[in-house]
Amino acid sequence: MRKGLAAVATLLLAASVIAGCGGSKSSSSGTTGSVKEGGTLRLGTSSRIDSLNPYVAFNQDAYSTFMYIYPFLVQYDKGLNFTPDFATKWETSKDGLTWTFHTRPNAKWSDGKPLTAEDAAWTINTDVKYQGTGGANTAGLIAHIKSATAPDANTLVVKYEKPVGNVLSQFQQLAILPKHIWAGYTGHKGADLKTFPNAAPIVSGGTFILTKFKKDEIALFERNPNFYGPKPHIKGFGLRMFSNDDALVSAMKSGEIDAIESVPPTAIDTLKKAGVNVSIVPGVTTNDFIFNANTKKTNHRELLNLTLREAFAHAIDRDKIIKVAWLDNAKPATSFIPPATGDWHNPNLKPETFDLAKANQLLDELGYKKGSGGIRTADGHKMSYEVIAPNDLTGVDRTFQIIQADFQKIGVELKQRSLDSSAAFDVITAPDGKYLNFDLAMWDWVPLIDPDFMLSVVTCAQYNGWSDSGYCNKAYDAMYSQQGTTLDQAKRRQLVWAMQDKLFKERPYILLNYENWISAHSKGWAGFVSSPQGDFNSLSKDSFTKVHQTS
Amino acid sequence: MSLLLQEPGLLAGDRPARSRTGLLWDVIKNQPSATIGAVILGIFIVLAVLAPVIAPYGLHEQVGPVYGHPSWAHPLGLDDGGIDMVTLLMWGARISLVVGFAATFVSMVIGGTVGLASGYFGGRTDTVLMRITDYFLAIPDVPLMIVVAAIWGPSLFHIIVVIGVLLWTGTARVVRAQVMSVRERAYVKRARSLGAGNLRIILRHVLPQIAPILIASTVLTIAVAIFDETALAFLGLGDPSRISLGKVIENAFQRTAISSGAWWAIVPPGAAVALLILSCSMIGRAMEDALNPRLRVSHLSAKGFRLRPLVGRGRDAV
Amino acid sequence: MRGADYVIKRVAFAVITVFIALVLNFALFRLAPGSAVTNLSRVPHATPETKHAIAKQFGLDKSKGEQFVIYLKQLARGNLGISFENSQPVSKNLRTALSNTLPMVGLGTLFAIVFGTLTGVIAAWRRGTTTEHVTIATALGFYAMPTHWLALMLVIIFAGVFPSGGMVDDFLIDPTWFQHLKDVLYHMTLPASTLALVLYGEYTLIVRSAMLETLGEDYILTARAKGLKPRAIVRKHALRNALLPITTLIAISLGYIVAGSILVETVFSWPGIGRAVYQAVLQRDYPMLQGAFLVLVLSVVFFNLVADLLYFKLDPRIAE
């Protein structure tokens, strides 16, 4: 479970106006070699679809599923620009308060019922109406929407109460649901939205129909003959869920599956030897080392000192972590906007050098003398801290061990406190969302393409929301609002870079690394469209539309 | 794990009465399995205790590539962090043995006390305590351990307490049976009639008599405790900051050791655990056989047998 | 004590044990560290209003005593709560899981019983010879192996021969009944074998001992004096008397195996109740964990009760 993975739970805070004309650049990735039509692609994962209900689901696999079975207004193309899906073109009013989308005419759901702008309007209105209860999961996506209407079957008009800049990014994540199926599940003030199992076979409007689902086992998809968009080459695909990586890789080697969604680094060599195609692309998942940056924290206030944080940063051996925990399948990180999102990432930031001598020197200069056992004393107490670590964080144990060993050499003692995600979040925000108690933590982020969400997690308004650092800075908040209202893309970029610069200096996080995305497929298949989220992703329908068997 | 099996026809009572240590020594000498078990256990203990000194490499020291193959320098290969497996086994045995012994100590104290009180005082105390024991026995321990560990949080201390608190039932029953028989012995009755207080009688007369069987039961419990620790670690509930043998297996399992072909990351730690369990079982079984003739099977009574399908709890005394 | 008394006593014991398990179940989970709402809520970053609504929904704003009563009432209706993970009823999730576990576990126990009885008989028959020692040593050896490790060993050894995970080949489109059965059995072989290997040792030793006990009896001597062949003796007398402990053992072990299937199912990705427990632990899906725990306890208590009653039927003397 990674936070940020629930892209639909974005809480948009600031308003912004950005002229967003519909880009209708079509992405063309030619197919390689000969194309054999038909077949069923067997994809394996060690993650799972936790729920088929968009109001409940948290896992990435569920979102990727929704991408393929439901219509979305827009999707990303390979260059991470917005391109049509259910909406073919769109316009904004001059004041940015009204967006008009033109949707595909004569579209149908898989059960034959008409798929129109009314379904989109209904979905949006339902999400707005019940955002406090059953619709909490999508609340972030429909922020500031007043209403949505469908004046005719192919036109959707969305009215906002203030101008919102990343409208397209939001709609890229909002699955349009069939009104005729879901309309009856809004009882109990919308709470019923969450309890509807949405069991297979699902009435679908996307490229595929979800025909079969066995929890923790298999999800089978078949080509949707009624789909409005480009037809896929394959007849269908299946997502097979394994309870661990070993079983997954073994199945790939023995030919039980054709592709692996996410390959553990330790299996790369063995898969290559078995004649499997392994592809490695930069991903977006970013691992971090977190300081409690709340200036009001009660104990161990030496951790608020920026020089101390710089010293700690020099004591983290990113290269070794990448080598051991990720087997060289990651890159050192600087800011939580990863390079894979394009030019939102500030390229001028460089990771701190791993320099224990410098770290020791900085701490010496701060006057923290080393005492018994080589551990320094600060403000009268030993520099011994607890690091909260969610137990489902990949590679956390190895990473922590490396950091712990190196910190020992600079006179700081670290202890790992392993908790499940909800307990970890609780301890971080304790007491009562005030972020007073914790010292250090480790976690990860899975940023979206548009930087607004990531930038928001360290704003004051995200206390008890997405904030896991307790960072709250008025100047930063002002910059956040401003980037949200900056029309000029270049100017906005400068602001976003400046914000990353500020965070780099003030270090609520020491960003450790950007993980690569490693996927694999057997030689009999081609045409996958890779992305920072892998080949089976929630960014676009392209990949499994283009995938095909080679002769 | 226990096999309360006595070879029919061979009663330890047939042997001349000896001092307790004499009896123990007899056991070890006469039962070859016990000797083998003791030797194996001894080797492990020595290796574990001396691990910091004699381990060939550092515990967190990366000495080669991830899943490096076995070689002369590293006879058992390297794990997923490039750490020498032999070193890991030594340190792992340390934690596994610590957990095993500590948890068993907890269960011995609880079980011994319960059995003692139950057998000595009899009557209502006995009934109540035995009822409690029965209920404890009826609840499957592995799921309960998992639930408690999941809720309470993974740490060495928690694991030890959780295991210890669930394993005492077998010891309690065995001790109770022994205490009941001792209680009726002539010298105890005499001591009582002479006005000796309960505590004095317990300490001077009863305790020494039950010590051997308590030890035998304890040794068997150690085997189960070690198994339980590996099971909990395998399910991700072990202490993340300690390397136990169970954790080594879990690491390998989580980091695709098998599909990477790195069998050496899995076979040795599991074999080590199996050897530990086997040796403790052999010793305990032999001790039981020799020390308590009354524990023989009475007429095919299945009640005497408790299964340890995947985890054991000690046994009922018949 | 007369027969009826005994039965009543055993049933009462079972019922009380279940009640204790319920209290334990409730207490453990409501006492979980971390705010119960965060634990019970699937929207960790919920607004205070949402959190309050969820608290009300689960009755967390009431006293512990009231909560317990609600818990019991819901149990009586078969409502085990809602899984955090997919917001579906726990009982539904568990029912499927249990129906997947039972055949696999049953097969494993069957293997263990058959193999264990065979080796036990051999060991008893060939008393004092090398065969006996080897048989016993092997039995003890397997018995000592940690279950999950043995499972991994089998995966390593049989890689490519048997599937290393799953219950069915999900990509088998519209299989015939027979094809489906073959597929399931094929996938079931390794997990069931793991269970069998770990279990059979105890059966061996017990059967052996039971047989030895019987073989020492006078009437066996008589039978031999009468000229009855050893094989007939074993079959007619010794084995029959060994049936009693074996039968009750089967019943008891079924209860424990369901509990112990956790390790095997985790290794083999078998979608049964053991794996459900494992997933629930990973996700800290407390309602699922709570429900699964209850089911496991119930099965153990149930099978133990069956064992008690069966035993009583076979040997009424136990009631004294």
What proportion strand of chain C? under 5%
**Biggest interface, CB < 8 A:** B-C, 58 and 76 residues
- Helix/strand structural class of chain B: mainly alpha
- Number of separate domains of chain B: 1
Strand segment count of chain B: 0
Distance between the termini of chain C: 5 Å
Q: What is the architecture of chain B at the second tier of CATH?
A: Orthogonal Bundle
Q: Count of helical segments of chain B?
A: 12
CATH fold naming of chain B: MetI-like fold
- Mean model confidence by pLDDT of chain B: 77
Tell me the radius of gyration of chain B.
22 Å
- Return residue spans of chain B where pLDDT drops below 50 for at least 5 consecutive residues: 1-18, 294-318
Strand proportion of chain B, as a percent range, falls in under 5%
Which overall shape of chain B is indicated by the principal axes computed on the Cα atoms?
elongated
Q: What is the typical, i.e. mean, pLDDT of chain C?
A: 78
Give me the strand/helix succession of chain C.
Answer: HHHHHHHHHHHH
From the N-terminal CA to the C-terminal CA of chain B, the straight-line distance is 15 Å
Structural class of chain C: mainly alpha
Describe the structure in brief.
The complex is a heterotrimer of chains A (551), B (318) and C (320). Chain B has 318 residues and is mainly α.
What does this structure look like?
The complex is a heterotrimer of chains A (551), B (318) and C (320). Chain A has 16 helices and 23 strands. Chain A has 551 residues and is an alpha+beta fold. In chain A, a hairpin with a 2-residue loop joins β8 (145-152) and β9 (155-160). In chain A, α8 runs antiparallel to α10, α9 (318-326) packs antiparallel against α11 (396-409) and α14 (474-485) runs antiparallel to α15. Chain A starts with 39 loop residues before the first strand and ends with a strand. Chain B is an all-alpha fold. Helix content of chain B is 64%, strand content 0%. Chain B contains twelve helices and no strands. Chain B has helices at residues 20-30, 32-49, 51-54, 85-121, 123-138, 141-152, 156-166, 168-183, 186-193, 198-234, 245-254, 267-291. In chain B, α1 crosses α2 and α4 (85-121) packs across α8 (168-183). Chain B starts with 19 loop residues before the first helix and ends in a 27-residue tail after the last helix. Chain C is an all-alpha fold. Chain C is 76% helix and 0% strand. The relative contact order of chain C is 0.14. Chains A and C meet through α6 and α12 of A and α3 and α11 of C.
